[in-house]
Amino acid sequence: MAMRGRGLFNGSIPPKCLTQILASVDFSSWDSVWVGCSGTFSFERAIGGKYPDKRYFGNDVSLLSAVIAAVALERPIEIEFINDLAHLEPRLAGRSFLDRAAAVILAMTVSANHPGKSLHSRKHWDFYLADLDAALVRPRERLLAMAKELPLADYMPGDFRDHLQRCAEAGGGFVVSAPFLKGFYENWFKFIHANVRWSEPEFRTWDPDDFPQLLTTL
């Protein structure tokens, strides 16, 4: 599900890192697990696989995370394709939310791998749009598979520091992989957020220089 990154950090947590975390942290005493910057929910799925009895609370500000959580929790959200993706709207009219969510994944993947408006990029878009039903099969199956293994009790769209405050009030344990690049969310999701209308949550720009303060808060 994670898209190819072009920078130092693309948001995907390496499997070896997850293995190290599971070996180094004893989650058995945690009443609940609250994850900030869930992304594709790597923490929830990894920790949940070893500690299935815990309650997991995800969080993020991206549309990618929102659609995954919506499928997992069976809580559809309103999504409308606009601007450069407006041509998808009539073709998705009357379809299920799962198809609409799969279209979001497809659009994110194609735009990440073939950015810009060159003839080369347009040819790739045309290829997928020529048979949209076939193009949606893989992202739809991936969403269903991920939802099946995602033990979410709830999901909060918004700033991970607000999620941390809710965790503190609930007496839970907090896990976060805050981006190592300033403006990471804004740049990575620029295309999809500019071409999809949804209830985009408010959040504060994260500056990696704030890591010491974050550790103090934790």
Keywords:
alpha/beta; globular; single chain; 11% strand; 4-stranded parallel sheet; 218 residues; 50% helix; disordered N terminus
Word description of this protein:
The chain contains eleven helices and six strands. It has 218 residues and is α/β, with parallel strands linked by helices. 50% of the residues lie in helices and 11% in strands. The model is unreliable at 1-9 (pLDDT under 50).
Short description:
With 218 residues, this protein is an alpha/beta fold. It contains 11 helices and 6 strands.
Average pLDDT for all residues: 88
**Spatial separation of the terminal alpha carbons:** 29 Å
**How are helices and strands ordered from N to C?**
HEHEHEHHHHEHEHHEH
Could you tell me the radius of gyration in angstroms? 18 Å
Total number of strands = 6
What kind of sheet is the major sheet?
4 strands, parallel
Number of helices: 11
Low-confidence sequence ranges: 1-9
Structural class comes to alpha/beta
Label the overall shape. globular
Give the fraction of residues assigned to helices: 40-55%
Strand order of the largest sheet: 4-2-1-5
* Proportion of strand residues: 5-15%
Q: What is the secondary structure topology, with strand pairs?
A:
Elements: H1 15-24, E1 32-36, H2 42-50, E2 55-60, H3 63-73, E3 80-81, H4 88-92, H5 97-113, H6 119-130, H7 132-148, E4 152-157, H8 160-170, E5 173-176, H9 184-188, H10 190-194, E6 196-197, H11 211-217
Parallel strand pairs: 1-2, 1-5, 2-4
Antiparallel strand pairs: 3-6
